[in-house]
Amino acid sequence: MAFKTYYYFDVSRHSPDEAERQRAADRIEVMTPLVKAYNTDMVWPLVGDAIQLYGGYGFSEEYPLAQIARDCKIYSLWEGTNYIQSMDLTGRKWTLKQGRLFMDWLQDMEAIADTMAGRAEFTAESAILKEGFASYKRIKARMDDYKQQGKAEMLPLYATRILHATAQLGCGALLLDQAALAADKIRELGSDHWDLAYYQGKIDAARFYIRNHVPAIMNLESILKYDDDTAITVMEEALGR
User: Fold this and answer.
1) Other CB atoms within 10 A of residue 204 CB
2) How many domains does the chain divide into?
3) pTM of the complete model
4) Which residues are known to be catalytic?
5) Is 238 inside a domain boundary?
6) Contact, 2 vs 35, CB < 8 A?
7) What local confidence, expressed as pLDDT, does residue 207 receive?
8) What is the pLDDT of residues 10-49, one digit of tens each?
9) Does 240 reside within a domain?
10) Which residues of 143-169 are buried (b: 16+ CB within 10 A; e: fewer)?
11) Residue 21 structural domain
């Protein structure tokens, strides 16, 4: 996802086609908060899991993970905290150009899932992604309904989880796109090629991510059905007891 954003930066600066430059700039608008916030939100628990592998030693300064834990945490804080990035996505990027800017990006990602539906080796992953896109659209519609009902506070309440869901769609689609290219290369090079593990790893990474992380989008939709605003309505006095 980060490299795709860098690619759009190159296109926005160097393409001779003005329309292509503008399209790339629009994609950067959407992907910037995802790259800044989702990646840095996810690295923190991943480093925590890595420390678990060491046991108590992992918390000691003579091992590199203690430093990595400190270093990675700052990325979620500077250049606007990750919560600010989530509000940028849902409060600003969702509405830029009357909402077309975001929906164009979403259609780009969804097109990958649609394309992969015709490939037998990725039928299951494509189906999960397509379910994720349908669920995400219902989540977004629910947020729009809250605003119309005068419950605008529900958007910031769920903004971080919505940013994660958005990034899960983007990462799932881009990983599946990589997996398809890797599958093509395996067929081209043969199963005895020295680079087989590299390409197979791309396929397995996409399968793992889509099967284990993308369904969190559907889980978020099920949570939203409860219309829970307890975190807003709880008595402040109760928080200290």
Assistant:
1) 13
2) 1
3) 0.93
4) 79
5) no
6) yes
7) 97
8) 999 999 999 999 999 999 999 999 999 999 999 999 998 9
9) no
10) beebeeeeeeebbebbbbbbbbbbbbb
11) 2-229
